[in-house]
Amino acid sequence: MWLRRSLAAALAIAFASGCSSDSKTYSTAEVTDALRNHGFSTHVVAQSETDEEFQEVFPHVAPEDLLNIVTQREGRPPPGGKGALVLSALIFKSQDKASCDEPNVIGACMRKGNVVVVVRDHRARAATEAVEDLS
pTM for the complete prediction? Predict the structure, then answer.
């Protein structure tokens, strides 16, 4: 009986601590720094390019409360083009719209607070560590 109660208490604490850490709102600078600390060479997308960059990841119009997008591309871009998208971190004004529920065209998706990171599978481990480092 005590084992059952202990397990229930441990699960409740783990659930509560997981939810509370998710309520913080992260800035673009915090996200960029965390990604760079894990080997990503990211840049912040210009506001004029936000919708286009969003649609490269998710096949629909960017939500209104999207603050910024931080990306990393690799490879040599064709003349007048862009390299292959490796990572896209979407920073929302609040966590209400931040979700991995929508299908994306890149790969692994992870979320913490108001941040959604979508990354190619071969860089998913480093991206997961970067997201976990957001505090």
Answer: 0.77
Domain assignment of residue 2, yes or no: no
Residue 111 lies in a domain: yes
User: How far lies 103's CA from each of 6, 56, 86, 118, in Å?
Assistant: 38, 12, 16, 10
What strands lie across the sheet with 108-112, from one edge to the other? 43-44, 66-74, 84-92, 115-119, 108-112
* φ and ψ of 69, to 5 deg: -130, 135
Contact (CB, 8 A) for 116 and 98: yes
Kindly state the tokens that stand for 53. Answer: 């960059």
Query: Residue 1 domain-assigned?
Result: no
Report the residue count for the chain: 135
Domain presence at residue 19: no
Q: How far is CA 23 from the centre of its chain?
A: 15
Work out how many domains the chain is built from and give that number.
1
| pLDDT per position as a tens digit, 41-96 | 999 998 888 888 888 888 777 888 899 999 999 877 777 777 788 999 999 999 99
Which structural domain, as residue segments, surrounds residue 69?
25-133
